[in-house]
Amino acid sequence: MIARAFQQRRATTLALFEGIEETTFCRQVHPDFSPIGWHLGHIAYTESLWLLERSAGLRCLFPQYRKLFAADGLPKNERVQLPTLEEIRYYLSVVREEVLNYLKVADVEQEERLLRFLLQHESQHNEIITFILELFRSQETKVRNQESEDRSQELLFPPSRPSEMIQIPAGEFEIGNNSIDALDNEQPVHRIYLEAYWIDRYPVTCGQYRAFIEAGGYQNSCWWLPSGWEWLQTEFVTQPLYWCYDPAWHNHPVCGVSWYEAEAYSRFVGKRLPTEAEWEKAVSWDAKANRRRIYPWGDEKPTPKHCNFSIPHQDFASPQIGKTTSVDAYPAGQSAYGLYDALGNVWEWTASWFDRYSGFQSYPYVGYSQVYFDQQHRVLKGGSWATCPWSLRSSFRNWYHPTVRQLFAGFRCASNRSL
Length: 419
What we know:
The chain is of the alpha+beta class. The protein has two domains: 139 residues, Four Helix Bundle (Hemerythrin (Met), subunit A), CATH 1.20.120; 262 residues, Alpha-Beta Complex (paralog of FGE (formylglycine-generating enzyme)). 35% of the residues lie in helices and 10% in strands. The chain contains eleven helices and eleven strands. A four-stranded mixed sheet has the order 9-8-7-10. Strands 1-4-11 form a three-stranded antiparallel sheet, covered by helices on one side. It has a two-stranded antiparallel ribbon with strand order 2-3.
């Protein structure tokens, strides 16, 4: 099963680079993110480091790449001098061949947690590559988007319905994940108590967010935290990064917003962002069975009937969607409390800072999660249309600075009372 998943993931990784021009391969499109070519080389470097050098005890096969592709090797702006795509594909191929040879004699059961970590690591870099490519496309279409904005008043938009909210009763529930798939920051499972609260059944849609834009939300400081308003004056943001004025997208989740934008909208409608615990209880807790679900709908692995996600190469007959979908498109993916669209489509910002759970133990190295427990990163939950199923679960924790808007992120709102 793991071997098949590795083969599928690598096929998906390489498919992202079909038809890529050399300038795109090596170019840094945003200062916070490395070129897509670097991410490709880093995947090979990480697999080689952990399975060949540290597990198998072999020498480094490509010592010339150690500084270039290590996460702490070079600043991001110095990662543009890269080998060619063909050279890095060769690097990937040689490393993978040696890995497969090692796994023939290794204790695979003993290595399973590391193998699953590496599978998710490659999957996460696939998603980063995907949104970097989307940044290239969004820059190319910036002029067309401006023309669409100029024509927006001529388009017929359906009225936005009020957000439907669901009451989550007070009580204890389990948060986290102890499975072999779980990353270190998801562990250990523990019980916590929450007072009753309300949460949106759906993520905030483009149609709903449009009301914030048209009401001057980006020009009125009363909706913004002081730090968010300061960021806004520096960045001159007037709409989400992946904004679309087409009425066909009216019921799609808003995508490409920073935490500050999500927070400001929440204040605009008299609500707030849910905490990570509130989000996870509403998505994963089955009160009738008094147990935690792996996914909102239960423990059945994600399929195209449940949500919008990155389908592994050659895994399903269903084609890749490759974009957001309507927030009510997947009734089979509802949580026990009735939340829609909690996994896939867009990541969802929460009010919580990324931090350790009590009993946290770093794996496979201290720097994977622990260095980000700095009260500078907000938690995102749920995954996006570009997230692979290996990282798609209710307990999965993503984290970014509140200023970041390049990933496929949206949000839903919460409240202490019914609105």
